[in-house]
Amino acid sequence: MKECNCDLRDGDAKTAVFGSNEMLQPAPVDTIPMEPTTPQIAYQMVKDETFAQTQPRLNLATFVTTYMDDYATKLMNEAISINYIDETEYPRIAVMNAKCINIMANLWNSPEQAKWKTGALAIGSSEACMLGGVAAWLRWKDKRKAQGKPTDKPNFVISSGFQVVWEKFAQLWQIEMRQVPLTLDKTTLDPEEALKMCDENTICIVPIQGVTWTGLNDDVEALDKALDAYNAKTGYDIPIHVDAATGGFILPFLNPDTKWDFRLKWVLSISTSGHKFGLVYPGLGWVVWKDKKYLPDAMSFSVNYLGANITQVGLNFSRPAAQILGQYYQFIRLGFQGYKAIQYNSMEITKYIHSEIAKMAPFVNYSDDVVNPLFIWYMKPEYAKNAKWTLYDLQAKLQQSGWMVPAYTLPENIQNYVVMRVVVRQGFSRDMADMLLNDIKNAICEFEKLEYPTPTRIAQDKNIAVKGTVFTHNAHSNAAKK
Ligand SMILES: *Cc1c(COP(=O)(O)O)cnc(C)c1O
Predict the structure, then answer these.
(1) HSE-CB of 37 using CA atoms within 13 angstroms
(2) Residue 374, SS3 per DSSP
(3) Which residues line ligand 1 (CB under 6 A)?
(4) pLDDT at 318 over 60
(5) Identical fold between 71-329 and 339-460
(6) CB atoms within 10 A of CB 372
(7) DSSP helix, strand, coil percent of the chain (3-state; round to 5)
(8) What is the pLDDT of residues 139-173, one digit of tens each?
(9) CATH classification code of 71-329
């Protein structure tokens, strides 16, 4: 055959992707390539670099949605080009957003009478927490100014089980964070201890529904009651912002009688993650205020060209709209009963794993209660004394079968405890739970045959001997902050 003089390897429509020169070159790291390549080659390179490192549904570390049905996925993909902020171009999306806020406000028993409830769309709970926190800060500031009092030393009170966003809030806005320590006996925010940390400069108290570290709920009703007495005694009016990143979509469906929301006097704002148990792909968060009067004017922009007065609040300007379609789809598709069924299954499977873990000789659960679809456990101290392995070894072992089950140390005061956490989301069945439990049992069997301690065991023992503290594994402890 005659050689052709064209260079097929250059990357044109006829080039086989894996016969191209690009596939022999390293991918760009520092500078943009001089020349274009075909979309097929570019697609392949980017796709191959982002091969899932685990199966997302075997990732029991994350709280964030990893399963939506085909219609939801189609709907969101079709909306991928829509910028939420272009309200004039897509006014119906702004209205849909307002409907989602109404639905959530009513799930949380909002007393607001207006047709459109007061809330905001966010990229996740982080932005939603920031907005709730800033609103509390500005309200406090306005009041202090009106009284001619200084406004330079604001603080807020939260348990040491806070999610990292509250550290960001404190640092970015320069608001002091006062932490109520968690202990093994006091596993959630202690209202009395929280009030001891309050003063005239406290902008709000932040209880958490679904503490990231432990899965537990702070008792908002008890806090509200104690705070009511405290405010009456001191003349302050310190409010509550509830960080309900997880609980905001669990409690209304599974514990409708538990009072943690706008039924309580001092709860003025609530934030949640639409992309956690709201069952939408990332990034989606929501914040709702009890009434428009609690949203400072300085934060809100009203638009009236939609046939209604719609209030817009946010840190970002442009943002994807697809998540709003995803959330509204889920509300319509599932309805109250559908959400309840999914959250119920997640809870039942969590309780099942929780009870099976309790039966395993090496382990003890951190709490007997399972109030959200996640829980943590640790190694029994008496077992740990003679064990040749740690939970970090178990994490690594499970990873070999594709599971991501994080081991990490608890926050300050109880940082000596290495724990392991499982978050059960939609997409995780009882059958999968049995596979996980079997893998854990098999791993324990193997570990018990070890003749010599593993490196993490040696490091942990050394640390206990030298400092009286357990080995802290930084790379892993970050997993808890997700
Ligand atoms: C996940 C979480 C956050 C942060 O939420 P994102 O949606 O990831 O931004 C804040 N607070 C708590 C309690 C969380 O669990």
Answers:
(1) 24
(2) strand
(3) 63, 124-126, 129, 163, 165, 208, 210, 212, 243, 245-246, 273, 285
(4) yes
(5) no
(6) 27
(7) 45, 15, 45
(8) 999 999 999 999 999 999 999 999 999 999 999 99
(9) 3.40.640.10
Atom of ligand 1 nearest to the CA of 127: 9
* Domain spanning 339-460, CATH architecture: Alpha-Beta Complex (3.90)
* Cα 57 to ligand 1 centroid, rounded to whole Å: 19
Quote the ligand 1 centre to 403 CA distance (angstroms). 22
Q: Which position has the token pair 């040696």?
A: 458
Extents of the domains making up the chain: 71-329, 339-460
| Cα 128 to middle of ligand 1, angstroms | 9
> How are beta strands 285-289 and 119-122 bridged, if at all?
antiparallel
pLDDT per residue over 90-130, tens digit each? 889 999 999 999 999 999 999 999 999 999 999 999 999 99
| Closest residue by Cα to residue 346 from 44, 78, 65, 129 | 65
- Output the average pLDDT for the chain: 91
Label residue 343 left, alpha or beta by phi (over 0 means left) and psi (-120 to 50 means alpha).
alpha
Confidence of residue 4 (pLDDT cuts 50, 70, 90): low
**Nearest CA among 161, 127, 123, 125 for reference residue 243:** 125
List C-alpha distances in Å: 329 to 3, 69, 76, 99, 172. 57, 10, 10, 12, 35
DSSP state of 378: E
Q: Are 151 and 164 in contact (CB under 8 A)?
A: no
Task: List the beta bridge partners of residue 301.
Answer: 312
Residue of 330, 254, 255 whose CA lies nearest to 286:
330
